[in-house]
Structures are given as C-alpha cells and as structure tokens.
Amino acid sequence: MKVLFFTAILLPLGFGLAATSAAHANSLPEGEAKPLVQQLCSSCHQSNRINQSSGYSRAGWQELISSMIDLSEHPSQALIISYLAEHFPAHNQLSPTLVAGNSVINFKEWLVPTLGQRARDPIQAADGSIWWAGQWANVIGRIDPKTGEMEEFALPAGAMPHTVTVDGTGNIWYTGNKNGTVGRFAPETGKITEYAMPDPAAKDPHSAIFDRHGRMWFTLQHSNQVGRLSPATGEIKLISMPTANSRPYGIKIDGNDNPWVACNGSNCLVKVDATTMAVQEYKLPDVKTKIRRLDFSSDGMVWYVNSSQGRLGQFNPVTGKSKEWPSPSGTQSHPYAIAVIDDIIWYNESGMRPDTLVRLDPKTEQFQSWPIPSGGIYAGIVRHMRPTAEGNLLIHQGSTNRIILVTISDEQ
C-alpha cells in the first residue's frame, strides 16, 4: 500500500485532518523535511504524537514508519528519516517501571496487510480464527493463526469500525463508529447487513458484546448512550446515561447477564438491567476518576482501570465499596485495556513508552510487567484486550498495525 492511500482514501472521509495538522504545526522543530512530515504524518494522526513518542534511532524510525506507511517510492524518504532521527532521538522520559516475576509469556505478532488502518480489538471466533477492526481503512480482517494467512473485507462507506465481536452462530459484528450503524458480516457468504441507529443523536457506536441470550449490547461514547440490538428482529433500543458526558466506553456482561459500562468522562460505573434496561449508577470516591474498560472475576467483583489516575481498581457490587492499587509506572501510566483470565488481572499502561502489559495476582497483590513489542521496536498502545478459549490473551498495537497473541504459561 503506497503513500497515496492516505490522500486518496482517508482525507475525503471528513476527518478534518488539514485543520488538525495546522493546529499542531508549531509542535515540530524547523527543518527541511518539516513540511513533508506534517503532510504525511498528519494524514493519520496529529503531528504532536511524534513529540509524545519515546524517540528512535534512524533504523528505529525507518522500521516504525514502514509499519505505518510505505515510503519506499517516495523521493524524500531519506530526508524524512534523517529529520526524525535528528530531532526525535531515543530518550527514557516515558520509560515504564517494569516489575520482575515468575510468570512467563510469549508474544506472537501479525502485521496486517493494509498499512495505516489502525488495526485494533482482536477477538477469537469459535473456529480459532482471529478477527480485528481496521478502523481507518474501513475494513475488518481475519487471521488464520495456524497458517498466518490474513484476509480483509471492505465495509459500507463511512462505517469506520471501532470494534468487532462474534455472536453465537459465527457471524462477525462491527460498530460503525462514523456512520451510526452496527453491522453483521457473514463469513460464509460475505454478506453485510447494516442496522442504523433509531435516534439521529446516536452517532458513534463504540464497544460491543453479546449476552447469553444472543443480544448485542454496545456503548456510544460521545452520544452518552447504551444500546441493545436483538438480531432476530433488528430492533435497537437506546438509553441515555444518568450523568451528562459520562462517555460510556468499555462494556462487559456480569454473571447475571446484565451489562456493566465504564465511564470515560465521569467517576462512575453503570449497571444496566438486561430485561428492563433500567440503569443503576455507582459513583467512585475519587471525582477525578475516568475509566476506560472493566471486567469481572469469578467472585463477581468488577475490575476496572482508573485511567486518569494511573490505578487499577476493584469494585464490590454488593457492598458498593472500591479498592485501588497504584499501577507500577505511576500516576501518568494511563491504564487502558483490561481482561481477567483465571482470576488473574491483565491490563496495559498506555501512557508509557513502551506500552507495558501488566499482570496482577489478587491473592498475593503482586504485580509483574513486560514491554509490548512492535517488531524490533516498541510503539503504539493497546486499546482493548480479550481472552482466547485456550486462556491466552489477544492484544494489538494500533499505530504499528499489529495484532498480537500473548501466550500465557504457568508460573515457573
């Protein structure tokens, strides 16, 4: 995929990237290649993301860029690489605090075919295949983990999928984050069925999950709503959050089949009654709390990432009490994704470079952490993680377009 991918496909979709680029123009130092870097890099992300990186050597910048965009035929490739290496060398200002331990894990990476898509949210289907959302390329993709074969499927114009999930019959569902839809993809036929939001204010379907009755629940972050779709009828019901600007983000199903929602804009967790869709809001003690995602352990405890405060939290739905632990890398670590596997808590510290995968054993309250690789470098963050049937973990590095399987071994 050549550099023309960005100007020919991404820009007409209305991301307002030109205005964003201008707003961050002064974040880059002067140099001959500055206009080129602004133009090319701002096609996918704000140029100040470069300042927020950990910096790289010339070889590191070359590898990082090659996983985002193909500059092999660009006449100024060497000039661009030299500019970045000179002005943004490697530094340790964002280095995480890594914690040693006895657990052993292994990372297996796949670089997806279409560069620049921000591959994310991998999930395992019943047949063992791995599916992901390629948000910026408007595709969903499938990996055969046994052969490494990958295939991508184009979605209806403007869908820009934020996530994928799988129903009980093997269909792949995605959330149309930019066109206010959710969609069903039938792998056997390639047929896509779109379901539009019944409310024009419901604009941004976000994260999604199925309950045990086959209903899909999903959040709409900026619309401040939660939705329920019944696939048998296509009916969608929407409810608004009790607190304005709660920004419902992650969503999981508890042991009673009720959805719980993480608030990325307020210090709350929200439980939705699966039958009546009545909402119960639980306020957490620290008003500065913002929660990206949550999950459950087998005892019914809610585990959440206090992203804004750099902490991992546990909430007891029976007593209403919460407990939090400082994440190893501190207040700026920005925990993001979370998954509970065999009552071990896994999450990442997205504010660090490299992004770290963190393990907590609640019985011992002992942490362990690892840097998450992206090829030969460390770049990007995990925005969602989900377990596999084998008890392993699926993560991603969106900025480098990698899907990653984390194989978890027993303690040695």
UniProtKB/TrEMBL annotation:
Keywords: Signal. Gene3D superfamilies: Cytochrome c-like domain, YVTN repeat-like/Quinoprotein amine dehydrogenase. The keyword Signal applies. The keyword Signal applies. Pfam families: Vgb_lyase. InterPro entries: Cyt_c-like_dom_sf, Vgb, WD40/YVTN_repeat-like_dom_sf. One of its GO terms (molecular function) is heme binding. Residues 1-25 form the signal peptide. This is Cytochrome C. It comes from Rheinheimera salexigens. The lineage of its organism: Bacteria, Pseudomonadati, Pseudomonadota, Gammaproteobacteria, Chromatiales.
